[in-house]
Amino acid sequence: MGQTGNILEQIRKHGIILGDGGYLIELERRGWVDSGSGREKVGTGKGSGQFTPEVAIEHPDALRELHREFLNAGSQVLQALTFFGTREKLDRAGFGGQTEAINAAAVRIAREVAADKALVAGSVSRTQLFEREGPSAAEHVRDLISEQIRLLADAGVDFLILETFFHLQEMLIAIECARDSGLPIIATMTFRPKLTECSDGHSPAVCARAMMDAGADSVGANCEQEPERMLSIVREMRKAVSVPIAAQPATFRTTDATPCFTKLPQFPDEMEAIQLPRSAFENFAKQATAEGIQFLGGCCGCNAAYIQAFARGLAGKN
Ligand SMILES: [Zn+2]
């Protein structure tokens, strides 16, 4: 199914759009991305260099191949690997001077593979400065995200996915910056360590309404939980807003006590031990439409096999 044009029109036309999977964890597993675990405690939200996207300029073929796999599996959207691609985060990993080159290369590679078969999204994530410095970082955050969105818009992305924000306040800054670009916006919060509130204490319903009111065209949740556990968040958001809901769960089995994989002892070096079977993704896709989900993708741990399972589930839905 060819995919060009506007993501919002595509969602209206098809009812649900299948996104792609998680890039950094999969490329780390393949040996191309540095998790940082050899140098520091990863998963604190305060780390320095881990999981940054310099693979786009250092090993472009590895990134290109993963895009090809997602496209072949049925992805209708390819996300440029620009997660953690703000200048200050790249700087902490030693790549700040290549901020322009990394963002431009990531979009170029995604576009080459997508051709006229998929849309290309720019991925914009939290800066980690709210976790490190608190709300006083707001203006610095605004400058960093605004710069990255300008780079992504200049590189020619079709729309933006603002993802993996722990603080609603930081997400709202990102939405403001994104609105200046004029590009369609999908905005998804990440709930850690609780399912019932984000890091600055807002429920999924409050987050959903605030993101919609700020100008997001689609809102939802991504990362940290497996599909089944993410469902309570998605349902609460669905009731709160009228815009399409986006869900991009992780492929890791979490627990009632710790419903977020980055706080589990297996993160980041033992995640094979908590990897979900892909049938969990197929089953989630079967119920996605009934749950009001209109943008479905995978986050950390999601490789092409899980996107194929999503595609099977969507094809077999009731
Ligand atoms: Zn993730």
How would you characterize this protein structure?
The protein is an alpha/beta fold and 318 residues long. Helix content is 43%, strand content 12%. The chain has an eight-stranded parallel beta sheet with strand order 1-8-7-6-5-4-3-2. The longest helix is centred in the middle third of the chain and has 18 residues, at 138-155. The radius of gyration is 17 Å and the shape is globular. The model has no long low-confidence stretch (mean pLDDT 95). The structure holds zinc ion. Zinc ion (ZN) is lined by residues 22, 223, 250, 299-300.
N-to-C order of helices and strands:
HEHHHEHHEHHEHEHEHEHEH
N→C terminal distance:
21 Å
Based on CA atoms alone, the radius of gyration comes out at 17 Å
Major sheet characteristics: 8 strands, parallel
Average of the residue pLDDT scores: 95
- What portion of residues is helical? 40-55%
- Attached small molecules: zinc ion
- What gross morphology would you assign? globular
**Helix-and-strand structural type:** alpha/beta
**Spans of at least 5 consecutive residues with low confidence:** none
Neighbour order of strands in the largest sheet: 1-8-7-6-5-4-3-2
Strands, count: 8
Number of helices: 13
Estimate what percentage of residues fall within beta strands: 5-15%
